[in-house]
User: Which sequence fits this backbone?
């Protein structure tokens, strides 16, 4: 994090990224002194409600974060920033998104946790758009014109007011990661799935919380002891995240049931905030990949030089396909099928985690069939990442991968067919 004093003293000349969180109420004009180098500007966590009309003077600016500010409208000046491709206004008070505010090069738009009730149809005129994060707003529908967004790959519309999912959404050729829980369209299925998987709650007094093992957008994970067993307790923050609502994540974890490639759930915790008691994962498990970067947008980042033996890659792929097939049979869409949500140990055993983007559906419905094949595309992306890091891959495996990412959604296999092909 940088300081305003550093900026004013000229100590930040030539930097490509500036992070300023210091109760700003006005845009510091000294930022323009960085115009010839600045590519990423993070002004999150301030008190800003407007941006200067001459913002395009930052002619190299590609990424702008203004989360946790009191903006009520997405500033139109953003549309004049020629290189701007990622815009983040999470947790503001935005009600209005003018068409003029959409940069021509837009790839990634974050408007999670605002008050948006309508999006401009002109959003479909941003051909590079890949990632659209709209959880926690007041949307009842999406512009039908978004059906033309051929490059849209990740969509988050959880915790809105959707009564139904549009049919055109099921036909987007590159959509792979979708989250829509916390809407009326999903609520009934969520209740039905939970009702079919009753699980007794565990009083918080029955466990002993230990050190923090990790934390994410939806909660904090503690070491825990319960009935002389080493466990993990996830205590949710209770607020909307970029993916959705904690109660939907809890419901999905519980309803997923037992599977050798899922993290076991002992039960929900009777606590405030709510929580889950989970099986403790051995320390020899590690995350398969890092999450997408600003540059990669929707694709995970692997350690440089990371290679897989073919059998190792196949073991991971089969584990994920098996877990996904199990979830789908229980009416659960994972929504975030990524390498960064996989834990792998030295023996090659794999666990699929992070249900923060999980949604609920009827597997027998027409949309349910399409949703399963949308997730098949996410698997195809993961399989590609694994296979391209292997030597001498049989052509049949590349055929499976290509089938999973077929541009026509109905042409893709479901996970039972994927398992058989692997």
Assistant:
């Amino acid at each position: 994090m940088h300081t305003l004093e550093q900026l004013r003293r000229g100590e930040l000349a030539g930097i490509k990224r500036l992070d300023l969180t210091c109760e700003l109420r006005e845009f510091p004009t000294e930022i323009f002194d960085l115009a010839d180098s600045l590519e990423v500007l993070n002004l999150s966590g301030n008190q800003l409600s407007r941006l200067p009309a001459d913002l395009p003077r930052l002619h190299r600016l590609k990424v702008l974060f203004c989360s946790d500010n009191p903006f009520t409208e997405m500033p139109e000046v953003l549309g004049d920033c020629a290189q701007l491709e990622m815009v983040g206004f999470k947790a503001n008070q935005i009600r209005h998104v003018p068409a003029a505010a959409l940069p021509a090069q837009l790839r990634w738009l974050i408007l999670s946790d605002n008050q948006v009730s309508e999006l401009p149809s002109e959003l479909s005129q941003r051909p590079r758009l890949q990632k659209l994060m709209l959880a926690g707003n007041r949307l009842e529908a999406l512009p039908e014109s978004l059906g033309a967004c051929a490059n849209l790959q990740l969509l988050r519309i959880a915790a809105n007011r959707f009564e139904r999912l549009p049919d055109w959404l099921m036909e987007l050729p590159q959509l792979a990661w979708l989250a829509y829980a916390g809407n009326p369209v999903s609520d009934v299925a969520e209740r039905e799935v939970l009702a079919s998987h009753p699980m007794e709650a565990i009083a918080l007094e029955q466990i002993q919380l230990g050190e923090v093992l990790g934390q994410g957008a939806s909660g904090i994970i503690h070491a825990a002891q319960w009935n002389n067993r080493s466990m993990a307790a996830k205590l949710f923050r209770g607020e909307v995240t970029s993916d959705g609502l904690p109660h939907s994540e809890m419901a999905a974890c519980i309803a997923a049931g037992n599977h050798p490639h899922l993290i076991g759930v002992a039960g929900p915790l009777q606590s405030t905030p709510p929580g889950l008691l989970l099986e403790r994962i051995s320390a020899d498990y590690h995350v398969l990949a890092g999450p997408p970067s600003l540059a990669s947008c929707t694709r995970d980042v692997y350690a440089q030089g990371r290679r897989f033996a073919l059998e190792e890659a196949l073991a991971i792929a089969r584990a994920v396909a098996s877990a996904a097939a199990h979830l789908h049979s229980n009416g659960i869409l994972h929504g975030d099928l990524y390498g960064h949500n996989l834990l792998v140990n030295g023996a090659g055993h794999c666990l699929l985690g992070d249900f923060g983007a999980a949604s609920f559906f009827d597997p027998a419905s027409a949309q349910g069939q399409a949703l399963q094949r949308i997730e098949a595309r996410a698997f195809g992306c993961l399989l590609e990442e694994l296979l391209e890091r292997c030597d001498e891959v049989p052509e049949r495996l590349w055929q499976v991968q290509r089938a999973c990412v077929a541009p026509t959604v109905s042409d893709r296999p479901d996970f039972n067919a994927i398992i058989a092909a692997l």
Observations:
- Residues 190-279 form a domain with the Phosphorylase Kinase; domain 1 fold (CATH 3.30.200.20).
- Helices lie at 4-8, 184-195, 246-255, 310-329, 366-387, 395-404, 415-421.
